[in-house]
Amino acid sequence: MLNLLEFLQKSSVDGLLPWSAQLDAVGRLSLSHAVVEEIALVSRLLPARYQRNRDMISVAEQLQLFRSRIAVIGCGGLGGYIIEELARLGIGQIVAVDPDKFEEHNLNRQLFSTPANLGRAKVAAALDRVNEVNPAVKLIPVRTFFRAANGRELLQGVTVAVDALDSISCRLELAETCAGMDIPMVHGAIGGWYGHVATQLPGDTTVQSIYRNWVEGKGIEKDLGNPAFTPAVVAGLQVAEVCKLVLGRGELLRRRKLSIDLLDMEMHEIPYHAPAEVIHFPTREIEQERAAG
Amino acid sequence: MQVTVKLFATFRNGRFKVTSQELTEGTGCRTIVLGLGLAEEQIGVVLVNGRHAVLDQLLHEGDTLALFPLVGGG
After folding, report:
1. Measured by CB atoms within 10 angstroms of the end CB, which terminus of chain A is less buried, N or C?
2. Is A251 helix (H, G, I), strand (E, B) or coil?
3. What is the pLDDT of residues B22-42, one digit of tens each?
4. Are β-strands A185-191 and A160-163 bridged in parallel, bridged antiparallel, or unpaired?
């Protein structure tokens, strides 16, 4: 262990550990990339792949990200982008849950779908991609439906759960499971040019409120499908929320939902306060309309 | 009574973003929704004067009704 630390320190320049040295350490000492990355971060060495984050995420924070375990429920449109971004961010463990295989109609938007991947399990493709992008990240593929019945098992030891599902009933079961396990949840949903994001902390019931008028079936996505860009936009917002939750920084999208319209390029914030509280709406965009007469 | 109706996302297609409607005092949200050719199961968010409301809620002079569709895809 002393030799490894010495090697990593000697190989570092300005506190940055080059990839070639990480690779060397893994090969020479028969260690995993994860072990080398953790020892580097504990020793305040930043793997050079994160150098452009250096002024916004400290080495100590990078270690927090590395030591977190994020569950991504659904590996389709939203989930693909979310997993890619979490891996590049340096999240240590990603639990990827999805029962499906890639089909041709996924190719317009799902990041890990390629003609060569058709017929392959989405979680298997996610595992390959993460190993390719950032071998220090451990992706745990779970090829199954998320339901309340297996939810507790799937979310064991999870820091944050990310909702990338495509079924409203499953989303509500995820929200209930997270509530029962005191796990924060980042909810995202899309359909056509439209989407929304909200973050729910234990004790909140934002997701339940968002779907309070839902009885059965799907939303506008049933007819509109989803294009390439809407999942990318919403997934990016969700990952920013995950990063903030892990690091305890910034203002979360808590007790409010950001509603996104990429066709008219409008964003509306819809508050989800406690029922007794007065909710202020119109939102900023409408106030601007008003100011403009 | 005058009521302002604001529509969002797909609800705007073939309709409007915002309009003022002249209605009988006490008309309910549901009447407006159905009058716009929308089905109840399409509705995601109903806001009356910025507060979450149910479709049974009755409207009064000067109220603003905002309607967002249900979005649930991933």
Report:
1. C
2. coil
3. 999 989 999 999 999 999 999
4. parallel
Residues A160, A74: contact at Cβ < 8 Å?
Answer: no
Distance separating alpha carbons of residues A81 and A92, to the nearest angstrom? 17
Most B CBs within 10 A among A122, A174, A211, A213, hence the mutation to make, goes to: A213
Rounded distance between C-alpha atoms, residue B42 and residue B55, angstroms? 12
Spell out the SS3 assignment of B2-70. EEEEEECHHHHCCCCCEEEEECCCCCEHHHHHHHCCCCHHHEEEEEECCEECCCCCECCCCCEEEEEEC
Mean pLDDT (10-residue bins), chain A, 293 residues: 86 97 94 97 98 97 98 98 98 98 98 98 98 98 98 98 97 98 98 98 96 92 95 98 98 98 98 59 45 48
ipTM over 0.85: yes
Residue with tokens 């759960």: A161
From chain A, pick out residues whose CB is under 8 angstroms from the CB of B52.
Answer: 209, 212, 272, 275, 279
Of A219, A263, A279, the CB nearest to B52: A279
Find where tokens 């809407």 sit.
A230
Q: Find the Cα–Cα–Cα–Cα dihedral A197, A200, A204, A208, rounded to 10°.
A: 50
Q: Whole-prediction pTM value?
A: 0.93
And the tokens for B25?
């005092």
Indicate the residue of B12, B71, B74 with minimum beta-carbon distance to A74: B74
